[in-house]
Write a structure and sequence with these properties.
84% of the residues lie in helices and 0% in strands. It is mainly α.
């Protein structure tokens, strides 16, 4: 029950983030605003993630899962109401910024939740389901928004989204709870939490630093690819509809991979090989993907990239818990999400910068390939973290 309501609010944060992406032109025309201000409605999310990931990580370890996510749910519920005054860009942006603030409180709590509610044989799958709900929210926003805006208009669309969000947040506040069997132990751990000591401990672990590096590459690649998909593939002659289908194939493959890869990881009792395979596929598939001449081939390659690269997230989250332990999971996840957000911003703007210098978006191919090679090296150097493997090696 707690898993289901948590997945709902996670999906909502991603859904509201990308809700304006398919209707940017309509929003710009109706509100009479420029491209920059429309883009800011979405780019505010990685900015808030950079600012809030570390303090939210501390809050998770100091006050627990339910308190942190409930705070995010309340902020998100209040913010969708502000968006109902959409005819004023100020109110619309205020609502969108509030949702952006709520996102790290909710989405960054996945590994903490799984470490408290599920045992080591289930944790990777719980992380996978939490990660999957993020991508379900993304793809739902891309599909549902254009349909609703045609039938209800922008005001009707925001009203429906507000009602759905308030319902999801209310369900979480009523039904979610901390694991009662751990109540006494958690209270003692939260009381003893010291933020500076926790971050010093986490940053002193070499394997954790490697995971942070891999997260920077993986999330940066995904965001850069999805942001500039149309421009990266336009030289191949694909239509807007075909490009959208290719993007959907990437996310669809990621949704499948976020469940299947953790199941395989548990079955084989290994984490490390899946990091190596994901980084290898990500680097090796970039050239054929960006040079595919038919939409079917591009969709197949995109689905493969999504299946392996997006599945990095649940594996990294589970490895984080296994490396730092339950008491420091929130702190460590905050650092991971900070690295991912920095990677996203760096990738988005570096691709644009490379295009300005070379006159082509394809120059970024070699940057991504080099980064994936670096991530592959890190994945080979990192130690296996599955408890059965670490115990047998002692």
């Amino acid at each position: 029950m707690v898993l289901v309501v948590f997945m709902c609010v996670i999906a909502l944060t991603q859904f509201l983030w990308l809700g304006f992406a398919p209707i940017e032109t309509l929003v710009r025309q109706q509100l009479g605003i420029d491209v920059f201000r429309v883009g800011l409605l979405m780019s505010i999310f990685p900015i808030m993630n950079i600012l809030l990931s570390v303090p939210v990580g501390s809050l998770l370890d100091a006050r627990g899962f339910r308190f942190t996510v409930s705070m995010g749910a309340v902020i998100m519920g209040a913010s969708v109401v502000l968006r109902l005054r959409y005819t004023s860009y100020v109110w619309l942006f205020a609502g969108q910024a509030g949702i952006a603030v709520s996102q790290p409180f909710i989405a960054n709590s996945v590994s903490k939740f799984s470490s408290l509610w599920f045992d080591r044989d289930e944790g990777a799958v719980a992380n996978g389901l939490g990660s999957m709900s993020m991508f379900v929210g993304m793809i739902a926003a891309m599909i549902i928004t254009p349909i609703l805006v045609r039938s209800r208009g922008l005001g009707g669309l925001l009203s429906v989204y507000a009602a759905a969000t308030l319902s999801g947040c209310l369900l979480f506040l009523v039904l979610a709870r901390d694991n009662p069997s751990l109540a006494a132990a958690l209270k003692e751990e939260e009381k003893a939490y010291r933020g500076m000591d926790a971050y010093r401990d986490v940053l002193g672990i070499k394997d954790m630093l490697m995971l942070i590096g891999i997260m920077f590459v993986g999330i940066g690649f995904f965001n850069g690819l999805m942001t500039w998909m149309s421009e990266l593939l336009s030289p191949n002659g694909f239509t807007t509809v075909q490009t959208g289908a290719i993007g959907g194939a990437i996310i669809g493959g990621g949704i499948l991979g976020a469940v299947v890869i953790p199941l395989l990881s548990n079955g084989l009792k290994r984490r490390k090989p899946f990091l190596a395979i994901a980084t290898l596929v990500g680097g090796a598939a970039m050239y054929p993907f960006l040079n595919a001449r038919t939409a079917i081939v591009a969709m197949a390659l995109g689905a493969m990239i999504g299946f392996f690269v997006i599945s990095l997230l649940p594996i990294i989250l589970q490895m984080t818990t296994e490396i730092v332990g339950e008491r420091r999971t929130g702190t460590a996840t905050g650092l991971l999400m900070l690295a991912g957000s920095l990677g996203a911003v760096a990738a988005i703007y570096s691709i644009e910068g490379i295009k300005d210098i070379t006159g082509s978006f394809h120059g970024s191919l070699w940057i991504f390939s080099a980064l994936f090679l670096a991530a592959l090296v890190l994945s080979l150097l990192i130690k296996e973290t599955h408890p059965d493997r670490t115990r047998s090696s002692r």
